[in-house]
């Protein structure tokens, strides 16, 4: 698990443009939760790194855009970081051939932003969304095999 | 009376506006009477030149898809309209965040969105718009359609990188011309170029045609931004909706500033400007920049980009839609003149 997390962080560091000077301050417990789901679903190591990096980018984007206000000295930086992580998520998903994930998560992510814009603060954890995607993916694969 | 750009391009702007509004109106997850829906529609209806959607549509006229319009070019279909609308949505989302970053209270002459909703809510409304575009573009599922995601990934990431560069180089009077051009390319030119390219690929344009259109759009975008830089010194506040010299006040080292810095007499005046400079100090530097040759040199650079734009589309000269590119060129080239 530690190796998966380390490899994911390395992948993210090398993927972020140097101009972004990205700080990858991810929540270790969220990373572990994601790693454990990927293991449970038997996702190969190389793919797990990519999926974990994509979920991490979404988590970073959410974190940066949380509770922003004019009194925050880091406001500009936070807005840019959040925007950058969101666009990098789509860019890397294309590169990793994981647009299925983007398609699946798109309505969920949108609903998250709708609820945030309307002042409702509850949100589905991202690792739950990933789990739902992997479940749907494996169900589709089983169905295809059955045919 | 001189025709507007969309009239000159014979593009039905009402159809495009309808499609842009439909992105939020037909989103079943957004309550019709919500602040979110109201805010997005208000922003969209507040105007704007719709340059990016127009670029998508013009690009689409260079395809090989046999839908036969009266131009003898590929016809604008639903798909092209959706992409055009998505391009405007991405642009509008970036404006919401830009206004917060710049602490700008006005957008298109009306109170900017965050002044009405609050900063945190406005940030998430911008996020909603970006996420909605990703959702819509996700419907383009085939490998053949991968290019559509350039709008919500590559071009948007570049936009952020341009903003990062701007942030890092605020009041940096040692900025090089190369750095300035790179920032401008990221911040303005690449989204415009991507719009033309995405439009072209949506109607199965040949790769070399799409690439030529990309280069054309990139050069036009560079000229467009340089013009904006020049206008910051020459236009009145009413014309550009912000006080003259706003860029200099915010520490943005634009092309005229860069050229003025090469004048040994003027350079110390400019280098003295910092975040807390007085109005007199700024006015003194502004006057110096306007009197010297910095604006003329910037204008020359702008003309060079306009020329490069025409060179980029030389191979399209015989295409039935070539005249559309000339119209765009005239529009981008004639505004300041």
From TrEMBL, chain A:
Lineage top rank: taxon: Bacteria
Protein name according to UniProt: Uncharacterized protein
Species annotation: Paenibacillus mangrovi
UniProtKB/TrEMBL annotation, chain B:
UniProt keyword list: Magnesium, Metal-binding, Transferase
InterPro entries: Isoprenoid_synthase_dom_sf (IPR008949), Polyprenyl_synt (IPR000092), Polyprenyl_synt_CS (IPR033749)
Cofactor(s) the protein requires to work: Mg(2+)
Pfam families: polyprenyl_synt
UniProt entry tagged with the keyword Hydrolase: no
UniProt-listed CDD domains: Trans_IPPS_HT (cd00685)
Entries under Gene3D superfamilies matching the protein: Farnesyl Diphosphate Synthase
Source taxon at top rank: Bacteria
Single biological process term from Gene Ontology: isoprenoid biosynthetic process
GO molecular function, one term: metal ion binding
RNA-binding listed as a keyword: no
Family designation: Belongs to the FPP/GGPP synthase family.
Protein name: Polyprenyl synthetase family protein
Source taxonomy: Bacteria, Bacillati, Bacillota, Bacilli, Bacillales
